[in-house]
Amino acid sequence: MFSFEFMQNAYLAGTLIAIVSGMMGVFVVARNMPFMTHTLSEIGFAGAAFGIFIGWTPLNGMLAFTTVSSIMVGELSGAVESRRESVISAISGLFIGLGILFLSLSRKNASYATNILFGSVIGISRQDVIQMAALSILVLVVLLLIFRNLKDDSFDAIGSQTNHIHRNLISIIFLIMLAFSVSVAAQIVGSLLIFVLLTLPASSAKYFAHTVLRMMSLAILFALFGVWVGLYLGYLTNWPVTFFIASIEAIIYGISLFYNFIRSKSE
Amino acid sequence: MSETLISVENLSLSFPNHPVFSDLSFQVNRGDFLGVIGENGIGKTTLVRVILGQLHPGVGKVIIKQGIRIGYVPQFRNVDVEYPLSIKDFVALNFTGLKLPWLSKKERARVNQVIKQVGLEQIANRPLGLASGGEKQKAYLAQALINHPDLLILDESTASLDPNTKKELLDVVFRLNKTMGLTIFFVSHDMQMIHEYPDHYLWLQKGKYESGPIADLHNENKEGQYV
Ligand SMILES: Nc1ncnc2c1ncn2[C@@H]1O[C@H](COP(=O)(O)OP(=O)(O)OP(=O)(O)O)[C@@H](O)[C@H]1O
Ligand SMILES: [Mg+2]
């Protein structure tokens, strides 16, 4: 299997994505941002389509769109919760519309659209892998630097108000890192199923582990398991890798909920 | 001369169409145990927010001594049953700054120390979300203490606790006040606790206030409205 360069690329990329998603996911879940993450990935879809339209790689188009919009949404963070959701819905609708427009303008066939939306293993070049590695390392280094303040802000938003942790700055930096993570993860699972890696593994991990570092390790493990096994099954069966990854992560999540249920009954 | 940590001078503050304080003045010195009372909605939490610098006084001055550390236990918090962090990890959240993710040996020792102080060592590794109301308040207190504050602000930390748990919590605070000189700003409705622990009181009332040593707090006929 590894004699094919595209499988090597896919495994390299998938491993990076799983690590970044597992780490970011813990904060995404703690900050209650799955919806925001999903919106960013839809914006990423428009960005990828735009990239194709003007002759960039889909990844670069995605990066451009998600980064700009994450900063814009960051400005909204002061708004009341209920309004924020509506604004995010409006933005997301607008961007999906734009994505469809760019795709039709660029006259690429429909399989290009499905690649962006549902992910594709074949499409990842060595060049892409290098860029994804650079982005992943950047995300990891930034996370390492802001780790303690981000942790305080994410897990104790009210209590952290008296600690001098620069909450607004932390929140913007986090959104930009989320934009990068979404763009990178979309390369494998597609922009429609980002949450499969960015929220499910972390949501599962919180039932088994009770420190941020342990939750992260476990989330990375769950994500890696899904990606590795998913790629392998995809290779064997020729079925879409995304299907396998999504199913594996959903099953892990189901088991976690069940475990939590049993535990709470037995206590 | 005792050192003044908080000095409020002629503070007036109102929300749109809603006056909260008018001409409020008081001081808190190092080592004081101040009990702050007043009915619901009178402005106790608002006063805390002014002291924390989250709200700016309209008229008057609020001077907080430069460089003091403030430990704060807020009245409300987003902790539901699914909250995943262990009590230990929650307490350590207040170790912020540009440091490595994992705690140093010294930090871990400090976490264990405050957890022991509030009496949670048995359940320190259990998720905070599953802790009882009293255990949660103790965890909040431990978190507020972790950075060795000069001033500890408790906003209704004993509301909804049973008498024993209340005492356990306040005994911890009281001991720190007496042995370490930790200054306490204790907001509460509980007249019995207010008489028992603080040495001073500040009683916020509509458009006015009263303050002084606790022995001067005479509320026999008004007790009913607070207990
Ligand atoms: N941001 C705000 N804008 C407008 N009004 C506010 C705001 N914050 C508080 N208030 C009002 O100011 C008053 C004082 O509120 P505060 O929360 O300080 O009361 P409290 O004394 O802490 O009450 P409780 O005992 O119920 O906690 C209340 O009437 C409240 O509705
Ligand atoms: Mg209040």
UniProtKB/TrEMBL annotation, chain A:
Q: In its keyword annotation, does this UniProt entry include Transcription?
A: no
The record's listing under InterPro entries reads: ABC_BtuC-like, ABC_TroCD
List membrane-spanning regions.
Answer: 12-31, 43-66, 86-105, 129-150, 170-200, 212-235, 241-262
Keywords assigned by UniProt, alphabetized = Membrane, Transmembrane, Transmembrane helix, Transport
A GO CC term assigned to this protein in UniProt: ATP-binding cassette (ABC) transporter complex
* UniProt entry tagged with the keyword Transcription regulation: no
Location of this chain's protein in the cell: Cell membrane; Membrane
Q: How does it sit in the membrane?
A: Multi-pass membrane protein
Task: Give the superkingdom in one word.
Answer: Bacteria
The UniProt similarity line reads: Belongs to the ABC-3 integral membrane protein family.
Protein name, per record: Cation ABC superfamily ATP binding cassette transporter, membrane protein
Organism equals Lentilactobacillus kisonensis DSM 19906 = JCM 15041
Automatic annotation (TrEMBL), chain B:
Q: State whether keyword S-adenosyl-L-methionine applies.
A: no
**SMART domains attached to this UniProt entry:** AAA (SM00382)
Molecular function via GO: ATP binding; ATP hydrolysis activity
The entry assigns this protein to a family as follows: Belongs to the ABC transporter superfamily.
Q: Which residues form the signal peptide?
A: none
**Gene3D superfamilies reported for this sequence:** P-loop containing nucleotide triphosphate hydrolases (3.40.50.300)
List the lineage, top down.
Bacteria, Bacillati, Bacillota, Bacilli, Lactobacillales
- InterPro entries referenced in this protein's UniProt entry, alphabetically: AAA+_ATPase, ABC_transporter-like_ATP-bd, Metal_Ion_Import_ABC, P-loop_NTPase
Q: Any idea which UniProt keywords this protein has?
A: ATP-binding, Nucleotide-binding, Transport
Put simply, this protein is called: High-affinity zinc transporter ATPase
Ranges where the ABC transporter domain occurs: 6-227
Q: Does the keyword Nucleotide-binding apply?
A: yes
